[in-house]
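Most newcomers find our protein records easier to grasp once they have seen one. Read left to right, the backbone structure tokens trace the chain's path through space. Nothing more is needed to start thinking about how sequence determines fold. An example says more than a description, so a record of this kind follows:
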Amino acid sequence: MKRVFVDTSALLTLLDRSDSRHDAARVCLQGLADAELVTHGYVVAESLAVVRRRFGVDGATTLLDDVLPAIEVIPVDAVVHTAALARYRASLPSGTSCVDNVSFELMARDAIETAVAFDADFISAGIAVIPVGT
């Protein structure tokens, strides 16, 4: 089964019905029903913080109860964390977030080649992003 990484940007777009890319995110994730969707705890924490601030308790509840149960949350071990911090330090001028650097390290470690993301940093990192054209 193909593993596909789910980024914070995809979760936020999925929950934001006013986002012009909302339908693309919904259709994309529905089309991946046969894939193993994965993310990590830093994405979950970042997403919950942003969703709670933008969409309130209802948004956070929807993320917790309706979206996250369909996604495997991979633990970030000390090796990935340390490598991601070094990568983040080196990338500070570019503006790539710490959480994205953790994602890149985890994806490299686990040989995950594809991400559902609406974040140009994934494309810049050479990761295949779906929906295509984001």
Q: What stands out?
A: The chain has a mean pLDDT of 94. The chain has one domain: 3-130.
